[in-house]
């Protein structure tokens, strides 16, 4: 079944799609209504506010009636004679840099990976996938001539970084398992072959390249999911203005340790969880250290900033006058800035509060903070996008000098009236609860529901989960959910161990030999929703995507009666067989997350929860919609197909609940389509859940919006 070029497999998948369509035929009217509701909430004009970088304002918008965005720029309006000259030259007009719609119309599919404008603003380097298989092609566009530099068409490119003078472009490429492992350097305008700068030969490590915010240096990072073995160097620094001054090693690899490097006024700053004599009770958490440029190769690092109590550092961004820190306090995201430069006499760790940080004002129900581009190193304005399950995206500019903020843009939701911060807390309730897991650990649970419903244990519900790679479960605003909330559904998000948001230890306590904790946490959250009257105990469903599909599949095997229905999207279900095949993409890289099944102990642990290997014979399973993508390079099409076949074959034959497989034959792991295709796909999933709950009486479940 792993031979995707087998015509028998294609025929089988087409028959599965036909069966799924036949099963869902009685939901056609409901799906049409759901699609219309979702599309009706999309404003005619969807755009991002311009963000200044140098003399230009960069922005995106989705043209009316189109599926995909367009990347544009225009010169910032100038006053006086400069503005009049630019106007006469036509230089205030909009420039279209990249139109996703044109590419999609030409190839039928488009996924733009990375976009990097050169420091002199004359070139755009970007990576493009037109098959769905995540095989990204590098292209470089001359923004003055609007032409593509043909030499630059290179396959399997992942990350990009420009030299300071915009004359050189560094890029990383993948091997046959989609592992970024090499860094090459291209000289624009030259016929000389691109030079190889670095090769990572260890299959457990990936290479990433980036530029420091001040543009002075390019870093080559070679790391695994969490760290690497002793004796190699995971970070190299290249002078961005002198590529001949090749590699400066920064830090040695240490198991479980990561480094994220920046540069400021003659000093390198690193965000790391490396052991420190000053860390004390914060050992294992991220802190900030620094060293002078001339001390880099001596590894003369001085520990600088520790997080406060119950606070973890997630990321940092550095500017000429400020350092921005992304924080989590008890799982809640926060932002703060401190003034730069930091006193050069500090030689040991100092608590964050000693630097008089300014904590950016945010709404009380905040769940998501996404940084803007923030390219301009000299600015004192920091842009972010704030969101929560009850608050559509709000673009905020924080002035780090005046310590004030301004709302730049609010996401428009047609048909709904917003309140302060553009939220809908008058219509929907968003609660944070803590669920006690099997071992006494408190698991954060976010619960969303309409204020019109009664918490009497009669509502249908959905529980989302992921719990892998240290990633934070997405709880940002999604207007699609209104169609279920208005129909009385409760939607919950379980931040189980293995995910992110509460430090390195939270991830580690749900990975490898501790993976079962993730599954037990998810089950505990589902049980809590029923016991506390949020949902009807026979009307709870679960949704998991990719590694989240593993979570949901394993939970169903352990407690099949907990869920009435489930949606598993491109799910990782056959983990034993996949992890035993090192030729598959990401397998070796995933040893750090799930363990190495070539060792007996890890194999037994993986085998104990592997969804495909633990399906219960003769037991009634939930109704399930399983989705897969034919060109998925991360999770093979055979995983979902085998799971569906086995569930149908060995579970209770007299159970009326159905299992359907829906395969997208034209896309990869991240699906396809833009705004309107997304609405159709979501309507299909919601209609499946409504049908699975026995709630197809459409007159009873009209949406209010």
Structure description:
- With 705 residues, this protein is α+β, with helices and mostly antiparallel strands.
- Helix 2 crosses helix 13 and helix 7 packs across helix 8 (547-558).
- The longest helix has 18 residues, at 675-692.
- The chain starts with 6 loop residues before the first helix and ends in a 13-residue tail after the last helix.
- Residues 79-91 and 228-233 have low confidence and may be disordered.
Distance between the termini: 44 Å
Q: Name the CATH class of the domain at 7-39 and 425-692.
A: Alpha Beta
Name of the CATH superfamily of the domain at 7-39 and 425-692: Alpha/Beta hydrolase fold, catalytic domain
Spatial order of the strands forming the largest sheet: 31-32-34-33-35-36-37-38
CATH architecture of the domain at 7-39 and 425-692: 3-Layer(aba) Sandwich
Q: Please give the largest β-sheet.
A: 8 strands, mixed
Mean pLDDT: 88
Structural class, by secondary structure, is alpha+beta
Helix content: 10-25%
How many strands appear in the DSSP assignment? 38
Strand content: 25-35%
H/I helix tally: 13
Rounded radius of gyration (Å) = 26 Å
In the CATH scheme, what's the topology name of the domain at 7-39 and 425-692?
Answer: Rossmann fold
Which regions contain 5 or more consecutive residues with pLDDT less than 50?
Answer: 79-91, 228-233
Principal-axis shape: globular
Q: Quaternary state, please?
A: single chain
């Amino acid at each position: 079944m792993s031979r995707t070029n087998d015509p028998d497999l294609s025929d089988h998948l087409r028959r599965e799609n036909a069966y799924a369509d036949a099963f869902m035929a009685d939901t056609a009217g409901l799906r049409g209504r759901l699609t219309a509701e979702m599309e009706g909430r999309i404003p005619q004009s969807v755009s991002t506010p311009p963000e200044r970088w140098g003399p230009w304002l960069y922005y995106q918008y989705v043209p009316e009636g189109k599926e995909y965005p367009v990347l544009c720029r225009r010169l910032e309006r100038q006053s006086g004679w400069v503005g009049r000259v630019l106007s006469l030259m036509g230089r205030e007009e909009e420039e279209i840099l990249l139109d996703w719609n044109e590419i999609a119309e030409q190839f039928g599919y488009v996924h733009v990976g990375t976009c990097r404008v050169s420091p002199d603003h004359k070139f755009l380097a970007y990576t493009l996938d037109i098959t769905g298989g995540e095989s990204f092609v590098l292209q470089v566009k001359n923004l003055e001539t609007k032409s593509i530099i043909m030499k630059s068409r290179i396959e399997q490119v992942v990350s990009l970084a420009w030299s300071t003078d915009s004359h050189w472009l560094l890029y990383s490429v993948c091997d046959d398992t989609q592992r970024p492992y090499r860094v090459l350097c291209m000289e624009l305008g030259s016929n000389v072959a691109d030079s190889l700068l670095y090769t990572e030969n260890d299959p457990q490590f990936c290479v990433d390249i980036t530029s420091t915010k001040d543009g002075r240096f390019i870093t080559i990072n070679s790391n695994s999911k969490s760290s690497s073995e002793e004796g190699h160097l995971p970070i190299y620094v290249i002078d961005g203005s002198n590529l001949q001054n090749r590699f400066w090693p920064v830090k040695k690899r240490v198991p479980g340790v990561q480094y994220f490097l920046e540069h400021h006024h003659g000093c390198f700053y690193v965000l790391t969880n490396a052991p420190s004599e000053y860390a004390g009770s914060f050992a294992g958490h991220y802190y900030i250290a620094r060293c002078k440029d001339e001390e880099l190769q001596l590894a003369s690092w001085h520990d600088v900033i520790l997080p406060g109590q119950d606070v973890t550092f997630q990321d940092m961004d550095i500017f000429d006058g400020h350092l921005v820190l992304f924080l989590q306090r008890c799982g809640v995201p926060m932002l703060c800035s401190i003034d730069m430069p930091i006193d050069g006499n500090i030689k040991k760790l100092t608590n964050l509060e000693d630097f008089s940080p300014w904590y950016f004002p945010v709404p009380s129900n905040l769940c998501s903070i996404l940084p803007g581009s923030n390219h301009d190193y000299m600015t004192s304005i920091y842009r972010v996008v704030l969101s929560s399950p009850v608050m559509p995206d709000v673009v905020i500019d924080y002035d780090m000098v005046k310590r004030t903020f301004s709302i730049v843009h609010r996401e428009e939701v047609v048909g709904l009236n917003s309140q302060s911060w553009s939220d809908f807390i008058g219509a929907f309730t968003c609660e944070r609860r803590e669920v006690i897991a099997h071992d006494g650990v408190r698991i954060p649970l976010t619960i969303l529901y309409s204020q019109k419903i009664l918490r009497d244990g009669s509502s249908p519900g959905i529980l989302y989960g992921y719990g892998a790679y240290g990633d934070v479960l997405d709880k940002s605003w999604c207007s699609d959910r209104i169609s279920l909330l208005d129909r009385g559904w409760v939607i919950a998000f379980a931040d189980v161990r293995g995910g992110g948001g509460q430090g390195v230890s939270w991830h580690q306590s749900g990975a490898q030999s501790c993976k079962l904790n993730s599954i037990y946490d998810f089950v505990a959250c589902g049980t809590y929703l029923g016991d506390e009257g949020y949902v009807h105990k026979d009307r709870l469903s679960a949704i998991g995507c990719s590694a989240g599909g593993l979570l949901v599949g394993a939970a169903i095997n352990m407690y099949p009666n907990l869920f009435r229905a489930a949606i598993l999207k491109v799910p990782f279900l056959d983990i034993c067989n996949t992890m035993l095949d090192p030729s598959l993409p990401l397998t070796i890289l995933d040893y750090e997350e799930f363990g190495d099944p070539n060792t007996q102990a890890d194999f037994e642990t993986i085998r104990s929860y592997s969804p495909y290997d633990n399906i219960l014979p003769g037991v009634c399973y939930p109704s399930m919609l399983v989705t897969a993508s034919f060109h998925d390079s991360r999770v093979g099409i055979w995983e979902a197909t085998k799971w569906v076949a086995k569930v149908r074959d060995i579970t209770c034959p007299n159970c009326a609940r159905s299992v359907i497989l829906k395969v997208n034959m034209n896309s990869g792991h991240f699906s396809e389509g833009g705004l309107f295709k997304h609405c159709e796909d979501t309507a299909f999933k919601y209609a499946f859940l409504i049908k699975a709950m026995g709630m197809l009486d459409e007159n009873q479940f009209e949406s209010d919006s």
